[in-house]
Amino acid sequence: MSIQLQDKSEVEARSPAAPPRPLRSLRPKERAGDRVFRYLVLAFGLSVIVMAAAMLYELTRNSLLTWKAFGPKFLVTSTWDPVQEIYGALPFIYGTLVSSALALLMAVPLGVGSAIFLAELAPRKISNACTFFIELLAAIPSVILGLMGIFVLVPFVAKVEPFFIKHLGFLPFFAGNPYGVGLFTAALILTIMILPYITSISRDVILSVPTPLKEAAFGLGATHWEVVRLVTLPFSRAGIMGSIFLALGRALGETMAVTMVIGNVPKISASLFDPSYTMAAVIANEFAEATSDEYVHALIAIGLVLFGITVIVNGVARLLIYKTGSATSQKAS
Amino acid sequence: MKTYKSILGLAAALVIGTAPVAGVLAASSINGAGATFPYPIYSKWFDEYHKKNPEIQINYQSIGSGGGIRQFTARTVDFGATDGPMTDKQLFSVDGKALHIPTVLGAVVPVFNLPGVTELNLTGEVLANIFLGKIKMWNDPAIVALNPDATLPGGPITVVHRADGSGTTYCFVDYLSSVSPEWKSKVGKGTSVNWPVGLGGKGNEGVAGFVKQTQNSIGYVELIYAEHNKLSFAAVQNKAGKFVKGGIDSVSAAAAAAAKNMPKDYRVSIVNADGEDAYPISTFTWLLVYQNNSGSTGKILKDFLTWAMAEGQAIAPNLGYAPLPENVKRMVTETISTIR
Amino acid sequence: MSREMLDNFDQRRRRNATMFTLTAVFTAVSLTLLFAILGYIAFHGISAISFNFFTKLPVPLGETGGGIANSIVGSAKVVGLACVMGLPVGILGAVYLAEFGDNKIGFAIRYCADVLNGVPSIVMGIFAYTVVVLSMGHFSAFSGSVALALIMVPLVLRTAEEFIRLVPGSIREAALALGISQWKVILRVVLPTAARGIMTGAILAVSRISGETAPLIFTAFGNRFWDAGMMNPIATLPHTIFTYAIAPYDDWHRQAWAAALILMLVVLIGNVTARILMKTDRGAAH
Known about the structure:
- The complex is a heterotrimer of chains A (333), B (340) and C (286).
- Chain B is α/β, with parallel strands linked by helices.
- Chain B has 13 helices and twelve strands.
- In chain B, the strands form two sheets. In chain B, strands 1, 2, 3, 4, 6, 7, 8, 9 and 12 form a nine-stranded mixed beta sheet that branches.
- In chain B, helix 2 crosses helix 12 (297-315), helix 5 (124-132) crosses helix 7 (167-179) and helix 12 runs antiparallel to helix 13 (326-336).
- The longest helix of chain B has 19 residues, at 297-315.
- In chain C, helix 4 packs parallel to helix 7.
- Chains B and C meet through helix 1, strand 1, helix 2, strand 2 and helix 9 of B and helix 4, helix 9 and helix 12 of C.
């Protein structure tokens, strides 16, 4: 929120009757300390751009062999054959996008709903305690979640899947064999992993809604839920959106836990119960053993593709937010 | 302001705290990286050696055979370890003379989960066809013919392979390539291959876990994992025609056969070895060291390897690894003496 | 109240109750998940926890009495250094975005941060490997901290920005009206007010990097013994958990679960401490 005065024309437009005055004398000179500070924090902010640029550079530099060999066809090839050195990213792109989308679909209502409950309804002490614990979910090492996935989640899903296959099997999404591992299981694990981000941040954002705004709504006779729906949520939109971006980022990049429950088969299939593969998982699985330069470059190329997809998905999401407009003056970042 | 002070205090404490803790402890330490399969025996060896020589710390981390080769070549570690020998191309990129030192032997066994069935006989051809997806059902005539006494279910075979690249995979597909021309042309061999069918488990543990939990499944793991997870594994027909199960003796038999024609650089594959009692899916595992090292690294490596060939070999069977055959040990001891 | 509002008052009341029950259910689901997971870890790992476990180094296979002391200390060091590197960059960058960043540069920074948040941790690790490890010629705890800091910065940046923005303009303007220079206003008024939210972001980031394995495999490398300083390989809890979990020995499995339990505990204690520190300091507006 910058506090510089508007420029001359706006001031004049507002008070046309006032005599024109040289506005330069009204604008406070930026003090030296302030300028230094501004450049300092700008430098820190720019470091993020530098990081992203450096990453892009490294990813590109170390994947050149693949682009030279396959070109853009890499993005639509479905084969992944390290022995014959034919590489294609399509199955991984599919797996990543579907698992992340599904995870968001499950985690957002769960997370925002919990946040509303914790911020609005629960007594403060319980709310704080619960939040501690939910934040703890973020600390669970993904390898542990992966192991629990193998020992608990996979058998559970294997028991549940036949039911869906029997009754909903006519839909391509629910056809397939009940292995237990697959896109659906991966989405479940991702939901657990991204939940704390959405819940915790949304809760804090909701708590920051100015009380006078809420009281005004109550004063007009709104029920608690209506206040939430009409005042709190619109006000918190930007913050909640931010938390969803973070959750999406985590989902796209999650490696260990996903690779243990997704089946790791680079094939595209409509069924959610079929095994699949994600970009992060294949890099994690094969990077350590990839010895030939072409192989390493292919894996890094997948990293680059993921990078690119993250750029696109973020861009699309931002566009949607911008188009639907911001209810409050909070600039939808 | 108080918060800032406490934050600064914490930061200062951290900076001081990150000063070397172990300045007192080890006088010399060397690092190595590589194969996951021998991690248990190597960590046991290095720990035991450290007990005998407290001023020497040998720190080994398992990042995979490929990782071991790459870090060894990049010289970010002092030695490497690999389940699959380096190729000529890889050796060419090494700056300096690299030595392969075989240490122990391992076996890759086909584990399965069939209710009511604990013993199974398979040939290389049948195994390849299962993993190619050509044999889809457990009661396929080919399997039944090999196992007339077993009650095989009529269900489909769930194939489980490794998702991550690994020396275990390399050994297994090396074997499949040598017994099945179709496998060799269609899939080939490598630490990671394009599996025609099956699910990918992460690590030996992942595969063992899946097979354990999924009925009518088949997979392949290192012998130790099969034993510790109490999984049934099949006997495989060797070159001499006998059905042999993986074990320390059968693996040693495979090595003994290969030892007769051991190349000087020890880079040899012993799958489908000759020998009446040889287990056909066996492999050496190697340590990678430079012949010439700087500082005290060479001396430490030489001393350790000498110990490994003596006391180390004796410990190996306790942990499920087959020791080197005698004549190989003698050759290796001579090679070790050239390390500087 | 209007007739319409009175007419469907019951309907609104019911919807109110339904929605809030739903949110309560969601919260219960989240908490159940967490306790189920914690319970599972505790159940499997509790048998391995002992005094030795906290204070001793790992022992050779087959022997008892070993511990993961070096991993605990190692994690503290690596995460600590990562925080020292990452938190200031993230928070101060967020200050820029919130206070001065409603422009093209701010947009670019936010975009880059969101993209970086989506980079898999292993790719961060590979990046740190190429940039730090290869340049130094060997693995080190420092490179591990760099990898973790890289993960931390965009996370802290985005969350801190949201909360600095939420500080009401009235507070800022009041301070400015008193003649305080802007940078002092930001450091002494705005940041403390936003502290609670910033702390949330910081806690989430620290929790996240405490449990990350993949970026440390090719940087901090791991160490079976005590480390020899930040410029050498070091053991960390998530790496040890990973190594033990994928081994075939039951004893190592139990140690892996126990180590995970300890990791949770340490993170929990860290979170609680951080929150308490926040409370005792005046300035939190909540």
